[in-house]
């Protein structure tokens, strides 16, 4: 056996070197994939504190790094088939003791942090006001007009400040006074076409006045 090894040492060296290179290449790819998964943006929109209109819309950052909340949009789907998309912004206090992301609806959301975006009743009512839906109607009448609604959160994430959208739809059962989250969960929007659309929404949010037209 030793004679065989001695006679074929150069060839065996090449084989061992090649196998070692393959093993380390595969190991490196596995480590890189694991690191990419760990750094992947993971944000969720959920419902807390009940199941009615007064329940709270929550944003949870389950990724390994902080994300920056840029804006919140509400899509209203009325019973007559129209859709309205409106930004929902919190009013800043004139002399606040401090500015937090939860207070103003913009800012950093740390890893493993959960942020209250506000009650669904307020989010829907604010979007409806901007869309001109509620008028002089009572709050209950407004909810009877809405068949479902979607919450879209636009964030900036990662070292390259990638714009990502997280959205989830909720159905409205006005007769039972319930808001039901879509069982499909939160959908992340990071494709190029989505990013262009999200950027347009952010630009529109900075424009003064105007309401969305039904689509």
Automatic annotation (TrEMBL):
Residues 174-196 are annotated as: Disordered. Keywords: Membrane, Transmembrane, Transmembrane helix. Residues 179-196 have a biased composition (Basic and acidic residues). It comes from the Bacteria. The keyword Transmembrane helix applies. The chain crosses the membrane at residues 12-30. This is Uncharacterized protein.
